[in-house]
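The pair is listed for reference:
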Amino acid sequence: MFSNHLTSKERLQIWRELRQKQHQTIDDVLLDFSEIKILSRYLDYYTPKSWPTPFEIVSEGYFCQSGITLILTATLIYKKFLSEQQISLPVISNNITGNTGLVLLSNNKVYNFTHGEICSWDYVKENATIFQINEINSQDIFY
């Protein structure tokens, strides 16, 4: 869906269409996101102030574990599937897939630990190394 062989403009158009698509559930959104191939690390997941905006991530093709999680988080907020003011973004090393980066934690559910699925926080704690948990204001995800 967001492959790097597309132009910046094409990737942004695809994300716009995805945000405008009528998803009935979070699972429908996750299904679309499961098509994104996870690339090597681009973002410093330890310093939220250095994170690019979701628009910059899509435009530049920063589709690492953390970049995809930030785009997913922004999409879920935009579509009003998430309404929390504080967003928890743990930095994990996934012992199953080998991926390292951000995941989204909301109401003891974890998004983007297993591509396209929702996992419990307990499952993640059993199957990952958790380095830190970033707590950010949901408004900051867009800026």
